[in-house]
């Protein structure tokens, strides 16, 4: 167990992080992600509130769908990255990261209902088949859809979202029923997996982690996530700064690095090009699928071209790496 954003969370189970990772890639895994926040914004002004507070354009979706978006400061830095579940006509569940729930709620209002539910993520190529043994309706929720379904007679909200790069769903379960439903999912052949595997999976999928690829000092554009900005929807915090940066171009961008050895790069490691420090690793680890080191790093746009070779300074020794396309591993 480990402390994560104020929550005591499973880092790994007895099988270990690598085994849990490979199970998710090849079969199905169950993650407890109850540390994610849930801020419910409801009522006739809910749409306008979120439309003016977040970067993405809610007009792209509709009730019964989910959307990835950012909450930015006036400099365009990412206060948090968020999934919005549009639960019904005027009800939205905004899902911030664990430690940012209070900050996001201060920006958008709403009610913090985090402690009323657990969130169980069922992920992997066989996740829907195995989930159907417990709830066929939950297993049928499509990617980025949001539906009210019953799981073992319990009303739940299920979204076709996740953080592994694999297919699957996330199930918001009333807290008092969480253990029973999690146990049923495990009994259906879905293996337990912890935060360690969740992190290596999201890195293989090149998904950003707040505090690493995103922060109040890193803009949406620097993180190579310009697609989450609704330029035509009107004003939102950070829009002017982001528009200026878009016009001028960023001095750093996020790219993927792959090494030739099993030694993992680590976040904070300097990236060198021809002996000169040109960037920094934001996340790095061993890839259980590729069996080499992989990393996300901020470098100048000229260095971020696929095929560029660099060195990563890992505790005083240089690790050769190459800029590669992301995601590092495609969905199974």
Concise synopsis of the structure shown:
The protein has 332 residues and is of the alpha+beta class.
What can you tell me about this protein's structure?
With 332 residues, the protein is α+β, with helices and mostly antiparallel strands. It folds into three domains: 1-35 and 113-208, Gyrase A, domain 2; 39-99 and 219-248, Aminomethyltransferase beta-barrel domains (Alpha-Beta Plaits), CATH 3.30.70; 251-324, Aminomethyltransferase beta-barrel domains (Elongation Factor Tu (Ef-tu), domain 3, Beta Barrel), CATH 2.40.30.110. 20% of the residues lie in helices and 33% in strands. The chain is built from eight helices and 19 strands. The chain has helices spanning 17-26, 46-53, 101-108, 127-131, 136-139, 178-187, 195-204, 239-248; strands at 2-4, 7-9, 29-32, 39-42, 66-72, 78-88, 91-95, 111-112, 117-123, 146-151, 154-159, 168-174, 191-193, 253-259, 270-273, 276-286, 293-299, 309-314, 317-324. The strands form four sheets. It has a six-stranded mixed beta sheet with strand order 10-11-12-9-3-13, with helices on both faces. A six-stranded antiparallel barrel has the order 14-17-16-15-18-19. Strands 5-6-7-4-8 form a five-stranded antiparallel beta sheet, covered by helices on one side. Strand 10 and strand 11 (154-159) form a beta hairpin. Helix 1 (17-26) crosses helix 7 (195-204). The radius of gyration is 20 Å and the shape is globular. The mean pLDDT is 97.
């Amino acid at each position: 167990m480990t402390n994560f954003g104020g929550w005591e969370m499973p880092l790994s189970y007895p099988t270990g992080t690598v085994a849990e990772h490979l199970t998710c890639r090849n079969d199905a895994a169950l993650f407890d992600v109850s540390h994610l926040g849930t801020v419910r914004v409801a009522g006739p002004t809910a749409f306008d509130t979120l439309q003016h507070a977040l970067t993405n354009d809610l007009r792209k979706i509709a009730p019964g769908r989910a959307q990835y978006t950012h909450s930015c400061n006036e400099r365009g830095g990412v206060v948090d990255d968020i999934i919005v579940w549009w639960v019904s006509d005027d009800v939205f569940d905004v899902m911030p990261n664990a430690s940012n729930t209070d900050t996001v709620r201060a920006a958008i209002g709403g009610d913090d209902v985090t402690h009323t539910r657990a969130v169980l993520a069922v992920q992997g190529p066989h996740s829907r088949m195995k989930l159907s043994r417990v709830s066929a309706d939950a297993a049928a929720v499509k990617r980025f859809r949001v539906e009210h379904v019953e799981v073992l007679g319990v009303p739940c909200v299920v979204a076709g979202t996740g953080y592994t790069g694999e297919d699957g769903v996330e199930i918001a379960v009333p807290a008092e029923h969480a253990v029973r439903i999690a146990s049923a999912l495990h009994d259906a052949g879905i293996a337990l997996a912890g935060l360690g595997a969740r992190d290596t999976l999201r890195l293989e999928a090149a998904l950003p982690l707040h505090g690493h690829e995103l922060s109040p000092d890193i803009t949406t554009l620097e993180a190579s996530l310009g697609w989450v900005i609704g330029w035509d929807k009107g004003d939102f915090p950070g829009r002017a700064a982001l528009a200026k940066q878009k016009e001028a171009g960023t001095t750093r961008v996020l790219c993927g690095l792959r090494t030739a050895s099993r030694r993992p790069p680590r976040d904070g490691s300097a990236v060198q090009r021809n002996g000169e420090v040109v960037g920094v690793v934001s996340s790095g680890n061993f890839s259980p699928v590729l069996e080499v080191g992989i990393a996300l790093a901020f470098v100048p746009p000229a260095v971020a071209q696929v095929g560029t070779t660099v060195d990563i300074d890992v505790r005083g020794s240089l690790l050769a790496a190459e800029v590669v396309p992301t995601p590092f591993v495609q969905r199974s």
